[in-house]
Write a structure and sequence with these properties.
Layout (H helix, E strand, L loop, with lengths): L8 H25 L9 E5 L6 H13 L3 E5 L12 E6 L6 H13 L2 E6 L2 H9 L4 E3 L10 H12 L8 H19 L4 H9 L3 E7 L3 H14 L5 E5 L6 H6 L3 H4 L2 E7 L8 H14 L3 E5 L5 H23 L7 H12 L1
Parallel strand pairs: 1-2, 1-3, 3-4, 4-5, 6-7, 6-8, 8-9
Helix pairs in contact: 1-5, 1-6, 1-12, 2-5, 2-8, 6-12, 7-12, 8-12
Length: 342
């Protein structure tokens, strides 16, 4: 018997389809703000939590190999001791009310660091206005994880002057390409649906090389929030030094609990291939399904947007197959209520 589609599925799928357009809007808005940001810096830190931080992880997949400016990601209320007046600090909180981000924002102000805020409003926007801190306004009314396109574009826009030349045309080209993929990605016979069918009810392990680390993390968190099930991620070659031992010892009954997804690209270090192939062979011998997923694009930005979109649709396909509504995340609300009472 076919499952009834969850009420929030159409909403989340529409937002996933619109993501490439969100990137372009976020970039254009942030480029207007970029003139207010000081350039005399060799260090940038983006502070956020959850879906408001993942965009910074994703952007690092482009900035680390292409810029001389070091980009860091902070998760939590405390800043590294080295953050000072020579650091550009960017604070992202979709709601504008994330207490950890607000605490870090205040700390950066006390240290004299240059600050920029990114939110849809809330207390973060109010503090930025009072203290005359440049603020990037995001559209309101979205699940934070579905605002990733606006945040990706926004961060690329804020950081655009640090690149040798503007990413305007490059990003537009990548967004147009990924927009063309949406009909296939969102359809019942597309690659995300095929991957979800092969994973079934198993717990997915998402593995990738370091350049795709942020994508592995995004896929994992999207499965957790949209499909309402646990997922995990790990990286090559690090997992060859620890996780391989656990897989070698997995039993036939244990193997039925897992599916392993390899995110791969043409930019993957060829020296990893023997280890990756060995692991794939070991998993298959143990009875663990292995899904090797190519993530490709004309450049790093196109590869990034393609991987984000594919993972988002994969998580929604898992939710649909299980009859789970991907929209609500009531557990996070209950946690916030408990924390606020405490």
């Amino acid at each position: 018997m076919a499952r009834t589609a969850p009420n929030g599925l159409a909403t989340m799928r529409a937002l996933a389809v619109e993501m490439p357009g969100h990137v372009r809007v976020g970039f254009a808005s942030a480029r207007e703000l970029a003139a207010e940001i000081p350039r005399a810096t060799r260090r940038v830190i983006v502070v956020g939590m959850g879906g408001s931080a993942i965009a910074a992880d994703l952007v690092r997949g482009v900035t680390d190999p292409e810029l001389e400016v070091a980009l860091e990601v902070g998760r939590g209320p405390s800043l590294p001791r080295a953050i000072d007046a020579g650091t550009l600090t960017i604070f992202t909180s979709y709601s504008g009310g994330t207490w950890e981000t607000l605490a870090a924002f205040d700390e950066a102000g006390r240290r004299g660091a240059a600050r920029v805020t990114v939110s849809s409003g809330g207390e973060l926007a109010r503090r930025a206005e009072r203290q005359r801190v440049p603020h990037l306004q995001l559209p309101q009314g979205l699940p934070p994880r579905a605002a990733v396109g606006y945040m990706l574009g926004g961060l690329f826009g804020l950081l655009d002057p640090f690149f040798p030349e503007s990413n305007d045309a490059r990003l537009a080209r990548a967004a147009a390409h990924v927009a063309d993929l949406q009909a296939g990605f969102s359809g019942p016979k597309g690659l995300p649906a095929q991957l979800a069918k092969r994973v079934g009810a198993r717990t997915p392990e998402i593995y990738a090389d370091v350049p795709l680390a942020s994508l592995a993390r995004r896929w994992t968190t999207q499965v957790e929030e949209n499909a309402k099930r646990l997922a995990h991620f790990d990286l090559f070659p690090e997992l060859f030094h620890n996780a391989i031992v656990g897989w070698d010892a997995v039993t036939a009954s244990g193997a039925r609990r897992w599916a392993v997804v390899f995110l791969e690209s043409s930019g993957q270090n060829p020296a990893l291939a023997p280890g990756v192939n060995y692991l794939a062979s070991l998993l298959q011998r143990r009875g663990v399904p292995v899904l090797r997923v190519p993530i490709e694009g004309e450049d790093r930005i196109e590869t990034l947007l393609t991987g984000v979109s594919l993972g988002d649709h994969f998580s929604l396909a898992l939710a649909e197959a299980a009859g789970v509504d991907p929209l609500p995340v009531d557990a996070i609300g209950r946690l916030k209520s408990a924390v606020s009472r405490a």
